[in-house]
Design brief:
This protein is α/β, with parallel strands linked by helices. Among the domains are: 16-402, Rossmann fold (3-Layer(aba) Sandwich), CATH 3.40.50; 419-540, ANL, C-terminal domain (GMP Synthetase, Chain A, domain 3), CATH 3.30.300.30; 543-646, Orthogonal Bundle (Non-ribosomal Peptide Synthetase Peptidyl Carrier Protein, Chain A), CATH 1.10.1200. Helix content is 36%, strand content 16%. The chain has a seven-stranded mixed β-sheet with strand order 2-1-10-9-11-12-13, sandwiched between helices. It has a seven-stranded parallel β-sheet with strand order 28-27-26-29-30-31-36, with helices on both faces. Strands 6-5-3-4-7-8 form a six-stranded mixed β-sheet, sandwiched between helices. Strand 29, helix 28 and strand 30 (808-814) form a beta-alpha-beta unit. Helix 10 (263-272) crosses helix 11 (282-288) and helix 15 (431-437) packs across helix 16 (469-488). The longest helix is centred in the middle third of the chain and has 20 residues, at 469-488. It is elongated and about 105 Å long. This is Acetyl-CoA synthetase-like protein.
Amino acid sequence: MGSLPEEGSVYGQRLIPHLIDDIAHNNGSRTFCSLVKSSNIPDGFQDISYAAFANSINRLAWWIEENVGKSFTFETVSYIGPPDLRYIILTIAAQKTGYKALFLSPRNSVEANLSLLDAADCRLFITASKCPPTFEALFKQRDMKRHIMPELHDVIAKDQVKHYPFVKTFAEAQQDPFIVLHTSGSTGLPKLVVATHGSFTASDTFQQMPLLGYPPTMVEPLKDKRVFLGLPPFHSAGVFNMLAMPTYFGMIPVLPPAAPLTADMVNMIHVYGRVKASIMAPTIIEELVKIPDHLENLKLVDHVLYGGGQLSKEAGDLAVQKTGILSLMGSTETMLLPSHVPDKDEWQYYSFSPCLGAEFRHRWEDLYEMIIVRQPKWESSQAIFYTFPDLQEYSMKDLYSPHPTKPGLWLYKGRSDDVIVFSTGEKINPITMEGIIGMHPDISSVLVMGQGHFQSALLVEAKKPSKSLDEKEQLLDKIWPLVERANKDCPAHGRISKEFVLFTTPEKPMLRAGKGTVQRMSTVKLYEPELDDLYAAPQSVPAQVSSTSLDLSSEESLRGTLRYILAVQLESDRFTNDDDLFAFGLDSLKVANLVRHIKTSLEKAGSDYSQIHQRLIYSNPTINQITYAVMAAKGKSMYAGAPGTEQTRQQKMQSIFEQYSKDLPISARSPTALNPTATKSVILTGSTGSIGSYLLDVLLSDPAIAHIYCFNRPHSTPATSRQSQINAANGLTTAFPRTKVTFLPVDLSIPYFGLSRSTYKTLLHNVTHIIHNAWSVNFNLSLQSFQPHIHGVRNFINFSTNSAHNASIFFISTIGTAMEWPTAHRGNMPEKIVDDWSLPQPMGYAESKYVSERLLDEASRVSGVPTAICRVGQVAGPTNGKGSWREGEWFPSLIRSSFELGILPSDLGPMEMVDWVPVDLLAKSLTELFLQRPHNTSQPSSQVYHLVNPTQTTYSAFQATIASHFPHPPKLVSLSEWLAAVEREQDLQKNPAGKLIDFYKGMVEVGEKGKKMVVLDTARTKERSEVLRGMEGVKGDWMEGWMRGWGL
């Protein structure tokens, strides 16, 4: 039976010392916990009653008073001993005598434990008669009073002792220290956390959630059940489950022998312990499922619960076939987080109770950080604000992704500290990869590493360390299929190659926290020398590549060796010497590898390699162009004007325009106006992107839209699932009825968009409007690399001319296509196509969009295709506070880096004027515009709109709002001073602006040259868009919401 409130007390105000004494007095025979009788588990179990437990506490309290004395200032007393019931008895005995207990992990280093003792100002030690060697070393380095505690059998002896009272009320004790715990040290040295009585009473309130009409929390299946507890008593989860769970919820912990926990031991307890559930670290579950008998015996329990780390999906999917799998989420600072019991097939997901006060704020891709926000209604349930009473919100630095179809379900994806940021600025979350590889039966643990380097490396700890190189190679071959499986769903820049696998040595095992999880940062630091050697070695590219030197003797020989190296890197040789290599999988990591290889070859040849850099490859993305560039660097002057290098950027744009416009279809069809009241069928490209998800949400709510065909690139995750995740995180609809939405994987650059003929024919018959929003946002790529996108525009033109309804094309362009307007023109940029190839910003992204604008305009004139172009300025986060502004963009990155550096630009130079459009308002305005079908026989050209905020403000206007979110008032500096500080900070995780350094340099240069920024005329757009006409300038509360979304 769970403990009901005594008369005059309420859930959330019952102190654990009082409850233990009350239960012992009123129902003393009730079982508190169960201990094994010996190390041989089949010998049976000894039940400890509440009367015996309370008596043991009283006995130890009197022992403390007699041997140590009472405390009146909550002095800290540390205890070290075998992992048995004495830890829990001491916790309450220390409270009764005025102390607070501190428990150190024997797995901590001496350095870590010394720092914790210093932080706690602890000079008093109680130990068992025998201590681990690490603690004997600790006593030699620190002057401390040491007392030897009686043996466990003496502490729990049956003879009665006098009651030792605990006299404080909840009002008096709620903020008093209850116990001193420490964090696991997974991300560095462990930190001290003083948990108060209120930190524990908060969990008592979970019992009232069903009474308030909410689902029961995760503790419900454990009420009044015998539960095996495989967590150490010195760990916060062990203390919580030995005190809060029994006293508040009636759980009966069944404890293992005082020895290192193994899968065999747990299996024996399942067989002989009469337990209904088990709580243990995920590493033990992963060991259990590898042994067929142990896996089968999971049927003996109703539930297996885990905490302290992530259970791999592979292990969980095996275990859930035999029993229920539940995850307990919490931390030393927060205690147990209230969550609901998920459906069996969603065992990985969390559904957090409203009493937690959780908000999920977007960080990157599909990852969201959970923030606990203080809420007066739920304050008694929010343990974190007992631990840190001065905070208004708290981040555990945990990352989640939303369920693809069920709002409110969240999948844990690791900590933000786990995220690896490569030297290229790209990121990966290594947790899923580690879970897959770590499932191999010969592996104890793995870590994916690479922070600040150019690619991932893998550190492997084998159960039986390999003694020779041959044995390591054999083990690598054994685990390689799992590595390849992990690589399959990982971004290219995060994939592991065989040359980047390290094995631990017996002398340096992975460092572990008390809960058994690997201490990531400490282990990476431990292997830092080996890791540095690995990255410095010539195998920084695949072995067959690293052994191949570029043959610089002639153009043909260089071209041949380049082809070989790139064929290995791209795992394909289907490209010609004039094909764009980025279309065949060349990415930033492979570019970095190729540049290093070229530099090394030129250095060996005694040639200058100073002109070889990554930008050179992006600007020359074919075998022939790279060949000419390398030969020019080698000093062959004849290559200075080689093919592909002599054209100006304007000539390149014109050439590509002519390539795609020379054979536009000529239509005799008379432009026909679409009945305004007729229903519309729409193709929307890029619906899973930032703008696209909001556009889809608006279209779904419009009754005039009969059907939406969402075009997205093929992906390993189904489009419906990805769309649901993105929309759920942004507070948008996740209902996609098949009668209204069809998701189609497409390649816009190939015939029929890669669809079947029947599907394509259906689209030709149904579609009335096309909203073309999808475009690769990569400012490194050259115009040439954007040709597949331009080809896609041409394919849409062909589609329109063949479609039954002469489908209109609404192209979402960019202000970048008009960025150079002030250089040669006066006034504002007009809402029309201007024949000036110098207009776009000099980067492939803007140039490709300008070429596409011109192509669509030509298609209107030649082919009678109804087209409209909307040039969009800076898109900001939403106004409703539900979604967030993606942190990787220039302004969020500027703010994050400023926050970390403690400085803030006093102005933004040429970007000082703020005409940003929030993304939710942008989507509504775009919808108003595209529905006004551009059929106008008197002006057979593209209609042009400009979507920038007509109510301008300045960055300075909300500078104070930004500064108010900093921990200390930031120092205001010039933009150039800010840029210099950003360049000095090398840690890209805390300094994301470092990844966009060229962009900020451009801002500074434009400001120093006094160059004017383009201003877009919005007269026609305001006439056509009610949303734009009424749009307010960026407001302080919008900025507040964006700052909260960034966790600031």
